[in-house]
Amino acid sequence: MPIRDYEQLMKNMKYSKNIEDLAVNIINNSFKKNIKRYRTVSAQTGVPPFIVFVIHYLECNNNFSCHLHNGDPLTNRTIHVPKGRPKEGNPPFTWEQSAIDALNGTYPKKPEVWSINNTLEYLERYNGLGYYKLGVQSPYIFGNTNLHISGKFQSDGVYNRNLKTKQIGAAIFLKLYPDFNKQ
Questions:
Q1: Would you say residue 182 has pLDDT above 90?
Q2: Is the pTM of this model over 0.70?
Q3: Residue 1 domain flag
Q4: Domain, as residue range, for 121
Q5: Number of Cβ within a 10 Å radius of residue 130
Q6: pLDDT given at position 1
């Protein structure tokens, strides 16, 4: 059972036409142009290519010079949580090496079925359950929707209830790309 009823939350989710247009533009200019790279990582991890793309957007703003773990530069091991990744190999790492390491970690457990509920829970756990523990909706999931107005971790473990996210939440991408698990 998911930690939240994400399907119901998505039914109540609203966002502006500007955010929708921006998300569609990001899908067209990042996902579709780089689908081979996302498929390469997907084949090694079992995470659907579109979900790899969503994580890449949320962690790295789709920058292929950053670790999928947390956006740190690929020139060294990660210095933010999770620290010291990838454990194998020597820097600089390729984006694919790092992404496969990030997604093949033991946590969070990958769902057997990539439904909306399972996928959004996986993404929330990937980012960490800090928002869940605070009883607020995660901007990682619901950023730029009516379900998340403010409140954000400004750094690892430091929550600011007045901080607003600039990122589009994962739920918007999944709503706009309903066949996300069938590439």
A1: no
A2: yes
A3: no
A4: 6-176
A5: 17
A6: 60
Does residue 53 surpass a pLDDT of 70?
Answer: yes
> 10 in a domain, yes or no?
yes
Residue written as token pair 């996986």: 122
Count the domains in the chain: 1
Q: Is residue 182 situated within a structural domain?
A: no
Cα 142 off chain centre by: 11
Considering the domain boundaries, does residue 181 fall inside one?
A: no
Cα distances from 45 to residues 23, 51, 89, 136, in angstroms, run 25, 11, 18, 30
**pLDDT tens string 5-15:** 999 999 999 99
- Are 41 and 152 in contact by the 8 Å Cβ rule? The answer is no
Q: Which are the contacts of 77, defined by CB distance < 8 A and separation ≥ 6?
A: 83, 84, 85, 86, 87, 91
Q: How far apart are CA 110 and CA 67, in angstroms?
A: 19
Q: What is the pLDDT of residues 84-110, one digit of tens each?
A: 999 999 999 999 999 999 999 867 899
**26-to-23, 51, 172 alpha-carbon distances in Å:** 5, 14, 12
As a whole number, mean pLDDT of residues 22-36 equals 96
**pLDDT score recorded for residue 181:** 75
Backbone φ/ψ region at 128: left (φ over 0), alpha (ψ -120 to 50), beta? left
**Which of 99, 127, 123 minimizes the C-alpha distance to 37?**
99
- 85 C-beta neighbours (distance < 10 Å), count: 21
46 touches 110 (CB < 8 A) = yes
